[in-house]
Each structure stands twice: as structure tokens, then as C-alpha cells.
Known about the structure:
This protein has 118 residues and is α/β, with parallel strands linked by helices. The chain is 23% helix and 33% strand. It has one domain (2-116): Janus/Ocnus (Pyruvoyl-Dependent Histidine Decarboxylase, Chain B, 3-Layer(bba) Sandwich), CATH 3.50.20.20. It has helices at residues 43-58, 98-108, and strands at residues 8-9, 16-24, 30-35, 65-77, 82-86, 113-116. The protein has a six-stranded mixed beta sheet with strand order 1-3-2-4-5-6, sandwiched between helices. It is globular. The N and C termini lie far apart (36 Å).
Amino acid sequence: MLESLQSVAIKLEPHIKYVVAELTAPGGETATIVRSYFNCKLHRHMMEQLEREVERKFGADAGIVLRCLGGGHLSASTSSKLILVHGTSDAYGSEPDRKSTVARIAAAHPDFRVREGS
């Protein structure tokens, strides 16, 4: 069920926030996903947008539980093909495994170098 969700959907902008969330379906299936949205100024707003995305995809009564693992900032340069993953969400803190986030983004964007920044 959850495998039908894109694991990484980020906007390649010079500076944008992102969240990492764990989704759990009623049968116990889990998925960890990374999201950023243009229209969200706060990490909390990104989680609200993600809730709407999940409801549109699976229905409001699907019983999928979302839990934010943390978040931070992305700095992407399309000219140098580089994505920096850095910073911390004021609301949720940093995800517990930033290296995993970097690896997820790198797998989703193989034409870019992705690294952890400061």
C-alpha cells in the first residue's frame, strides 16, 4: 500500500525546508518519506500538507498514521548539481539519521551530488 507513495518529493530550490516522516498503515506496514513543498513556510505546515497528500492518495478513513521524525533545510543548485542537507526544524528537531536522509535524496536525484552541510 505505502510503496505507491514516492519516497522523496523535494523542490530543487536554493533554500527550502523539508520534513522526514514515518507513515504506518493499519496492517503495520511502514514507510519513511522526505517532502518539501513550495507553499509551506513552516515545517508544521509541511506535515499538514503531507497529511492532505496521504488523504488524497488513500482516503481520509485509511487509518494511516503520520509521525514527523524531524526536518531541516535543503540548498540546491541546479547549475552545480549539488544538494546540501542541513539545519534543524524548530518544531521537530533534526531527524535521527541524517545520513539516511542524504542517501534517500541521492537515490531520488542521481544526477546530483547530495551531501550533509553545516
